[in-house]
UniProtKB/TrEMBL annotation:
It comes from Flavobacterium chilense. It comes from the Bacteria. The lineage of its organism: Bacteria, Pseudomonadati, Bacteroidota, Flavobacteriia, Flavobacteriales. Residues 1-25 form the signal peptide. Keywords: Hydrolase, Signal. This is Glycosyl hydrolase family 115. Residues 692-862 form the Gylcosyl hydrolase 115 C-terminal domain. GO terms for molecular function: hydrolase activity. The keyword tRNA processing does not apply.
């Protein structure tokens, strides 16, 4: 009794420590320590490892992944764990791995009451890891990793690998394995429960030239050797679903082992949104005629039939529906009847070939681009099919289920993008994704009931390592993430990959480089992006990037040598390359400016542009040839300089610069670069009765999080999303699954104290993240007013033109203007009323004198605030 009480206290303590140090994490619970104790399980101790038992009757994938664990133990401890096939051969300490209902040993442990069947029976992808004392003769202690199903067991194994210090990125980003000689598992039932999202996956896409070049050089193509690495990576991150590479690639044809291996590992295969019935787009050869159901249905039907035959019993989510050839709209106008007929035919094929009721084959229909219009206009989607809702290819969700819609058997999914080929411009080179926006959009989706499929387009996999893991971690349990703890993710990820020493600083670099890169995709940057004349904007942008270089370089110098390769790929390279690119465009802008003035300093900038352009190629070259002696050759070969339309240039093209002939008349050398530094002083006025943000230079600029007052309601709360957006943070109403709010005296609003020295008409520019109207309402709305003025109700999505959308996503901001009359100078309150959730306000700029706000990309810096 006394001992039990002590043990209970210990568990509680450990539990509380776990909770206090990591409210959530990649691994929410650390159950591995380096200290031996009579209660712990010695996985590795005093030069010996526990042996590993897996029943031969278990899934081959489980046997395979158990081998990975043995290898991981070796990497950590330099000791080989012995594999045992008969439990009678086991002695003293053994890791017993098995799947409930498949491993006779796990079933015996259940029967003996040593592990609880209720934890596993009927569960999806669940594992429990626990110590069992004296389970069988000769065994003192077993560490039992039991899975409810194949993936449950596999996740349990990889979870232990992760606990002993093996990152999912050990191969894909060369994260080193830290040597340890004592590894002990704590008592307790270690489990991550069931995932909240059923299918969680990635789409390898737009994979040429980078990933293709690499895969062909290292593996001879997109074959099973290549996919072995991909499947392992996905499973180590507890994902389960893949759309394979499809740029001219044929997953099932190029190497028949691809599908066999996926099945062995338990990866659920799919094909992309426009490749129905498991057939790769590239399998449709010219000899088959037109990709057109109205004129070529027989060939299409046979083509699809073969796809389902080939699929056999392998776990698959079958894509249904149809787009035009090569991911184009199928017809002009809306072809609802045709599409419904196609889907009916496809479902008949599935049923006929599988000989199973149609509901027993998971299917998904993506409402991608124009297909969503069909749906909005009434296209019927069978209830058992998962409706895959999509973003706009730029990370902004286009559609969510209505709050009061009746549940669908097939549920809903989201197809999201971290990489894209298409308008307004490709973005494929480097990571530009802020996890804060991913969190905010996917949280929205989850709150609206999207929990069947989450899949993200990850381009070449590298260099999206960080946001990929975030996406899959979040998919496991979106409920663990909130606006307040997303920032912890950076730190935990840095710890997992680089150890504790510099985790805080590395986290800071990750969060700032992604913020800076997300302001505008590198492919869209040019000499005109940031202002070289106003608000010191361009120089500040360059200086901020340079600070990141300084920090990253200094960490790099201090890091243990074994971390350096990983650090280069995951942190240093993106910082160096992004900084360099921005500096090059700013130098180009200065070259243009000075050349126009006939100032010979233009020539200095001309040289600088050349140097920086060359540096870009040198950085790429280092990544390809020097880093790990060429392990990642080709991976950074995506062109990114010299775009003149949405499609990439063949090769990087240096920006055009001008040179000045030096003559006696030429202005030389000295020039002040800061042309119109805004007066920031408030001109000695008496500030005694002034409060809030103070007008100066014809405007007041405010970061949204710096409100004076926030009024919440019982249902919703203003929630700051730190670091989200282009300048500071974002603010939004959470939870998001609420009906529109009617404005009243008490309704939720933000108040900003401001002080005007002038009066008359003012304009308010409200800067928002480019959220789309994902509802069937006419748009998302907010209210805005000064003081007691009647609030103006503004439809954020009023202009839903293609042009407006393209500008908003390119600028990664949508600015909405309202006009107001200010009758008196002095203190005022700007009131921002919440009506619809999901709008994310980043910044507010009030123009008090027309034409006084100078042209810039990020808007004027924040004004002086009198507290
Ligand atoms: O990003 C997308 O979803 C599409 O552009 C791609 O799926 C598309 O298939 C493209 O790579 C080529 O077909």
């Amino acid at each position: 009794m006394c001992l039990n009480f002590k043990l209970l206290c210990k568990f509680l303590l450990l539990f509380l420590i776990g909770l206090s140090t990591k409210s959530y994490a990649i691994n929410p619970e650390k159950y591995l320590v380096n200290q031996a104790s009579s209660e712990n399980f010695p996985l590795v101790s005093k030069g010996k490892t526990a042996s590993v038992f897996v029943s031969k009757n278990d899934f081959p994938g489980v046997l395979k992944v158990a081998g990975h664990l043995e290898n991981d133990i070796f990497q950590v401890s330099d000791l080989h764990a012995k594999r045992i096939n008969k439990i009678a051969e086991a002695q003293d300490f053994v890791v017993i791995i098995g799947t409930f209902g498949k491993s006779e040993i796990i079933d015996q442990l259940v029967k003996k009451g040593k592990i609880d069947a209720n934890q596993l029976r009927g569960k999806w992808e669940k594992f429990t890891t626990q110590i069992v004392e004296n389970p069988f003769k000769g065994i003192k202690k077993a560490l039992v990793i039991a899975g409810s199903d194949k993936r449950g067991t596999i996740y349990g194994i990889y979870d232990l690998s992760n606990q002993i210090g093996v990152s999912p990125w050990y191969y894909w980003a060369d994260v080193p394995v830290k040597k340890q000689s004592e590894l002990h598992v704590l008592p307790g039932i270690h489990s991550q429960g069931e995932p909240k999202v059923k299918y969680r996956g990635i789409f390898i896409n737009d994979e040429a030239p980078a990933l293709s070049g690499w895969a062909f050089e290292k593996f001879g193509g997109f074959n099973s050797k290549f996919y072995d690495k991909v499947f392992e990576l996905i499973l180590r991150m507890k994902g389960n679903y893949l759309w394979p590479a499809m740029w001219g690639r044929m997953f099932y044809v190029e190497d028949p082992q691809n599908a066999v291996l996926a099945d062995e590992y338990g990866i659920v295969m799919g094909t992309s949104h426009h490749e129905p019935l498991t057939r790769a787009h590239a399998e449709w050869g010219k000899e088959k005629g037109k990709w057109d159901f109205t004129t070529n249905s027989e060939t299409l039907i046979n083509f699809w039939k073969d796809g389902i035959k080939r699929m056999g019993n392998k776990e698959t989510i079958v894509t249904i529906g149809m787009r035009g050839d090569g991911d184009e709209p199928m017809t002009e106008g809306t072809a609802i009847g045709l599409l419904e007929n196609i889907v009916k035919t496809q479902r008949n094929i599935i049923q006929e070939v599988t000989k199973k009721p149609i509901e027993e084959t998971p299917q998904m229909w993506a409402l991608y681009k124009e297909v969503q219009d069909y749906y909005d206009k009434g296209m019927i989607v069978p209830d058992d099919v998962t409706l895959l809702l999509c973003d706009d290819n730029w990370g902004n969700i286009r559609k969510l289920p209505e709050l009061n819609s009746k549940p669908r058997k097939g549920g809903y999914g989201i197809y999201y993008h971290y990489d894209y080929v298409g308008g307004p411009r490709n973005y494929k080179w480097i990571n530009t994704n802020q996890i804060e926006r991913t969190w905010e959009q996917m949280d929205l989706a989850y709150q609206y009931g999207v929990d069947k499929i989450w899949i993200v387009n990850v381009g070449d996999i590298k260099p999206m390592e960080f946001p990929i893991e975030f996406f899959l971690d979040m998919a496991w349990n979106p409920e663990k993430f909130n606006a307040g703890n997303v920032q912890d993710y950076y730190v935990n990820w840095a710890k997992e990959n680089f150890g504790n020493q510099f985790a805080g600083e590395i986290a800071q670099i990750l969060k700032l480089y992604t913020k800076y890169n997300s302001r505008r995709k590198p492919e869209l940057l040019d000499a005109k992006t940031y202002s070289v004349t106003n608000y010191n904007e361009a120089d500040l942008v360059v200086a901020d990037y340079k600070k990141l270089i300084e920090k990253a370089s200094s960490i790099n110098e201090k890091l243990q040598p074994e971390y350096k390769d990983a650090f280069y790929q995951l942190v240093l390279f993106p910082v160096l390359a992004s900084s360099n690119l921005n500096e090059m465009y700013v130098a180009t802008a200065k070259n243009h400016l000075y050349a126009e003035q006939g100032n010979a300093i233009a020539n200095v900038y001309d040289e600088k542009v050349k140097t920086l352009f060359e540096k870009d190629s040198l950085l790429t070259n280092y990544y390809h040839t020097k880093l790990l002696n060429g392990k990642w050759n080709h991976m950074m070969s995506q062109t990114h300089i010299g775009y003149d339309n949405w499609q990439q240039p063949e090769k990087n093209v240096i920006p055009k610069t001008k040179t000045i002939e030096i003559s006696n008349q030429t202005k030389a050398g000295i020039s002040t670069e800061d042309f119109s530094k805004a007066e920031t002083l408030i001109n000695n006025r008496d500030l005694d009765h002034v409060w809030g943000f103070v007008e100066s230079n014809g405007y007041i600029s405010i970061e949204s999080k710096n409100y004076s007052k926030a009024l919440n309601s019982d249902a919703v709360k203003w929630t700051i999303i730190p670091n989200l957006g282009r300048t500071e943070s974002g603010i939004t109403l959470k939870p998001s699954n609420i009906k529109s709010i009617e404005i009243s005296e008490q309704s939720p609003r933000l108040e900003y104290d401001v002080h005007f020295f002038s009066k008359g008409n003012v304009k308010v520019y409200a800067y928002f993240s480019p959220t789309l109207n994902f509802t069937i309402r006419d748009g998302l709305k907010y209210g805005i007013a000064f003081d007691n003025e009647k609030p103006q109700i503004i439809n954020f999505n009023q202009d839903d033109s293609e042009k407006n959308w393209a500008e908003s996503v390119a600028d990664n901001i949508k600015i909405i203007t309202s006009s107001h009359a200010i009758e008196k100078t002095g203190n005022h309150v700007l009131k921002f009323y919440g009506i619809d959730s999901a709008l994310v306000l980043q910044k507010i700029v009030i123009e008090t004198e027309e034409g006084k706000i100078l042209k810039s990309y990020l808007g004027p810096p924040e004004s002086f605030r009198k507290e």
